[in-house]
Amino acid sequence: MTDEPRAFPEDRIMLLVCLVMSGVVLSSAAVFPTRTIAFHVLGSPLGIDVSARWTLAGLLILLVAFGMDGLVRHISGHRRIDLRYSTTFWILPGLVTLAAATVVPRQFGSPSVWLGDIVLLGVLLSLVVVGECGTVRLDTPWYRTARLGLNIATYGAALALYAFIYSLQARSLISSTAVIVVTFPLALELLRSTEENLETTWLYAFVIAIVAGQVSWPLNALGLSALYGGALILLAFYTLTGLTQQHLAGRLNRSVAAEFGSVALVALAMIVAGIAATPEPTSVLDTAGDFAPEAYSTELEFGLVDAMGIPRVPVILYPPSPLRPFDPWSDLAGTDSTTVPEQPVPLIGPPPSPLRPILP
Fold first, then answer.
1. What are the boundaries of each domain within the chain?
2. Calpha distance 172→91 (Å, rounded)
3. pLDDT in tens, 37-86
4. What is the pTM of this model?
5. d(C-alpha 133, C-alpha 149), whole Å
6. I want to staple 101 with a disulfide (CB 3.0 to 4.6 A). Which of 57, 187, 205, 311 is the partner?
7. CA-derived radius of gyration, the chain
8. C-alpha to C-alpha distance for 136 and 11, rounded to whole angstroms
9. H or E element, residue 228
């Protein structure tokens, strides 16, 4: 059944935002127990911290989802809307709610920062909800402005999520799966247009998510910073979603494809230039491969990762004392020579020379 479209529901939007932020404030003042669930995935041990705060965050996200569903039905004038279509309006408000429910309680010890985060995220949630409501109907006067703002917010959220996932340096099986999970709803948000193209939109969003996950797989072996790793995944996401949007709108041709390709190449060149300009960590070996005492710092950390994306293992090397010979077991373990560790620190290869440490 179809009703006439109704006026913009400012009061409902304000009520929804106030309810969500009130829940965030209450979660900040409460103390929740935490439980760790340990399990194994493909032989690798994993642990997940489960807290009642995460349960409350999930309830707040459900509140936003139900609120957005009611707003979409109210604005469109349709009592029945395909769930696959209305779901696309939950994505960005749900992400902002998740950020508020996880970030704000951590700042409770600093009142000024805590209050600033509440105001900032409350305003951001209001803008996102208003923008989503402005894109329900294509004949809305400020539809293009709302759509542009949502696109910028979506790409910003994608960069933040990609950088966070890449910074974890988890196994590629885990990180690539996480990239797929976050890319799929973000692609749905960008590709959403009308209720008539639901099957095609969901299919393309799924393909984009799979490709983004495959792009992130080899990037784990490069050991880049979180910003550059996330930017490379974002570049692939931007190019794929842009081309798909043009295809769904019937405007994809050679000139449009060349335009997106040119933008992607320029952005890739800028990212590569930034990576090349990043200073390398100082090595304890000079250019000839000999030990350089002046470059030997008190704690030198090397990031190790193999081709399968195994997390980096920090190895801290301590310089030998000038009053005693270099003992590889005690120095690498960070203990005194008179203290024998219960289990020696495993080394790769033969024991190091007193004058030249072996770098794993």
1. 1-140, 172-278, 281-360
2. 25
3. 776 666 666 666 667 777 888 899 999 999 999 898 888 877 778 788 88
4. 0.68
5. 12
6. 57
7. 26
8. 17
9. helix 226-248
